[in-house]
Design brief:
Length: 460
């Protein structure tokens, strides 16, 4: 009986082991693909600075050096939707991060790596697994209000990240603790990168960060996604964490007409414009200027400022963003008068071939006065683009998708000469008011706007 009892216990033990093993396998049926085989850096390349990367004991090791900018070991492959898991161990004096959906483009800051970064922060701030926008907008989802995630970081030990990027949503976990939950539609594809941050002269050279067990899923990712307990941080028609710190203000709340009116009205137009799904759209009405709802303007006026607007054009569309607008000038047909950042389908709209100065009616140009750089980066029809206008002490810059495409000096003799040779010659002192409205143009074509923000520039 004793032998039989022992065998039964042993058999039960084996059965339990089998059940546990089977359960463990069922828990993670994710079809992981390794991005690093533990022996070489095939499939990776270095961008940015000259920090050292090597393979040691089955780990990727990043090593700081002086006199170099941020360095990135990046995948050759580009990824849109994915789930990524990896482990890292970092020197307590370093700062680092994991780049996702990131890019390096010749026209953007001479190839600077930019995109979402999942932070590695061993400092007392403890924002590891928060989301930063490298080379662009700064902090998007810091961990000020998530002390549990900050406490989950293990100093001088291996830490585990899970990163899910699905559609416009990015979620992160650190050592199993939910860290960030961001909804942001800025970039939907790019490489993955391992950052070695630049160091100052007073920091020790040769500090290290190690990565291992880097694996990814790109097929049926929604099937393997995990729920998070965190409320999402939304950026559409909202100020980001960094923008709020820098003094930006929303010009459109994403829902109502508050802060806007018709250029020739005391209220917002009753037709011709819609506000749906966080998009402010001027509707198609045959391509005529101000023929339906008419132009809309801010109720406030602005002097020096930095303005940012996301816009999306339909095929063959024409519109514009005007600034230093005086709505009392033109009471007749056509648009209100002001300096115009042109919005146009250059390939299909005839205006691209017109203008009193060659090329001055193409997208991002100063309408009818100065042509934008023909090498400007423009996204395809139906995709969002970002216009940025900076005006300080009469120095004006037009930017498109992060690239400066023209600049000029308002009120200068050169500027006055351009005006004298343009359609604006009939308006005395055109574009020279000290303060004016911001205007979105109704040119009879479907164009949508969102994330309309301004930062008034106030001299100290």
């Amino acid at each position: 009986m004793k032998k039989l009892k022992i065998k039964t216990k042993f058999g039960t033990f084996l059965l339990v082991l089998c059940l546990v093993g089977c359960t463990e396998k069922e828990k993670d049926s994710t079809p992981w693909v390794s991005l690093f085989d533990g022996t070489n850096l095939d499939g990776w390349n270095q961008k940015g600075g000259d920090a050292n990367y090597e393979v040691r004991d089955g780990n990727i090791v990043g090593i700081t050096v002086h006199n170099t900018p941020n360095s990135f070991l990046t995948t050759n492959a580009m990824y849109d939707d994915f789930i990524l898991e990896l482990e890292y161990k970092v020197d307590s004096t370093m700062n680092s991060g994991i780049q996702i959906r990131s890019n390096s483009l010749p026209h953007y800051l001479e190839g600077r790596v930019h995109g979402y970064q999942v932070e590695i922060d061993p400092s007392d701030r403890a924002w590891s697994a928060g989301i930063y926008d490298e080379g662009r907008r700064g902090w998007l989802n810091p961990l000020e209000e998530n002390p549990e995630a900050g406490a989950a970081f293990k100093q001088n030990e291996w830490n585990h990240y899970r990163i899910e990027a699905i559609g416009d949503t990015i979620k992160t976990w650190i050592n199993g603790t939910p860290a960030a939950h961001l909804v942001d539609g800025k970039t939907d594809s790019g490489f993955i990168g391992l950052q070695v941050h630049s160091i100052g002269k007073d920091q020790k050279e040769g500090t290290e960060i190690l990565w291992r067990n880097i694996k990814i899923v790109t097929d049926s990712v929604a099937k393997y996604a995990k729920p998070t307990s965190l409320e999402p941080v939304l950026t559409k028609n909202k100020l980001t964490y960094q923008e709020a710190k820098q003094g930006w203000k929303l010009l459109w709340d994403g829902k109502t007409s508050e802060g806007w009116r018709g250029a020739r009205l005391d209220s917002f137009p009753a037709q011709g414009w819609t506000m749906e799904n966080g998009e402010l759209s001027v509707l198609a009405s045959g391509g005529e200027e101000s023929n339906a709802g008419g132009d809309i303007v801010t109720t406030d006026v602005y002097g020096d400022f930095e303005l940012q607007v996301d816009f999306k054009i339909s095929e063959g569309a024409n519109s514009g963003i005007k600034y230093y607008v005086d709505t009392d000038l033109n009471k007749g047909p056509g648009s209100s008068i002001g300096l115009e950042y042109q919005i146009l389908d250059d390939a299909r709209h005839p205006d691209a071939q017109l203008g009193n100065h060659e090329g001055s009616r193409t997208v991002a140009s100063l309408y009818d006065l100065i042509q934008a750089n023909p090498d400007k980066p423009i996204n395809p029809i139906g995709k969002w683009n970002t216009a940025r206008i900076v005006s300080k002490n009469n120095h004006i810059e037009h930017w498109l998708n992060g690239v400066k495409v023209l600049e000029y000096e308002r009120k200068s003799p050169e500027y006055k000469k351009l005006v004298a040779e343009s359609k604006y010659v009939k308006w005395p002192n055109f574009g020279e008011v000290d303060k004016g409205h911001i205007l979105l143009q109704d040119h009879g074509d479907l164009v949508s706007f969102k994330n309309i923000k301004i930062k008034p520039i106030i001299e100290d």
